Amino acid sequence: MNALSAEDAVRFASTLLTEPGARVKSDITLPLHTDEHVVGVRKLVREHALALKLSLVEQTKLVTAASELARNTIKYGGGGMVLAQVIDSGMRQGLRLVFADDGPGIADITQALRDGYTSGGGMGLGLGGAKRLVDEFDIDSRSGEGTAVAIVKWKK
Ligand SMILES: Nc1ncnc2c1ncn2[C@@H]1O[C@H](COP(=O)(O)OP(=O)(O)OP(=O)(O)O)[C@@H](O)[C@H]1O
Ligand SMILES: [Mg+2]
Fold it and tell me: What region holds the Histidine kinase/HSP90-like ATPase domain (predicted)?
């Protein structure tokens, strides 16, 4: 297995981590290789969402988005990791999640985001669905190098 270290992933995802003014209040990384890891991510995200006092609906949206992206990291990226950061813009707090892998990358991001597009016999709803469930959504993907998908949910 081509293990991606937390440091590698953060470096890879660095273009997605530049949010001028947003202070990182906490930082945690979890591995993403197995179904159990997906369960772990769901739990972590739920805990953070609760701590941020997101409504039950917003908590569920965030957990659902995280779940979809975690599954993609494992299924298409060959595994990787997730970085979870509590961030503070000065005005509000939020949770940023970055899902990173060193898999094949996404050749056509527009196509991958289209509802119904799948290369793996799925429903093709994960990426587009995740995007609609969060406040910010970014993909950095390089052919043959890997993919990083960053999402942010703010406490409104
Ligand atoms: N981390 C990734 N690395 C490489 N390709 C990816 C990655 N994530 C998504 N993709 C590509 O984007 C496509 C669309 O992803 P999406 O999550 O929307 O659908 P799916 O996973 O195929 O199906 P579903 O999530 O509905 O079960 C995938 O089929 C795959 O080709
Ligand atoms: Mg998917």
Answer: 57-156
- Residue 1 above 50 pLDDT? no
Degrees to nearest 5, angle at CA 153 with 147 and 156? 165
Give the length of the chain. Answer: 156
Which amino acid is present at 132?
A: R
- Given a cut of 90, whether residue 6 has pLDDT beyond it is no
Task: Using the Cα atoms of residue 8, residue 12, residue 14 and residue 16 in order, give the sign of their dihedral.
Answer: negative
pTM confidence score: 0.93
CATH code, domain with 34: 3.30.565.10
1 located within any domain: no
**Any domain includes 127:** yes
* Contact between 146 and 85 (Cβ < 8 Å): no
Q: What is the pLDDT of residues 128-154, one digit of tens each?
A: 999 999 999 999 999 999 999 999 999
Q: Which domain holds residue 110?
A: 6-154
Tell me whether residue 114 is in a domain.
yes
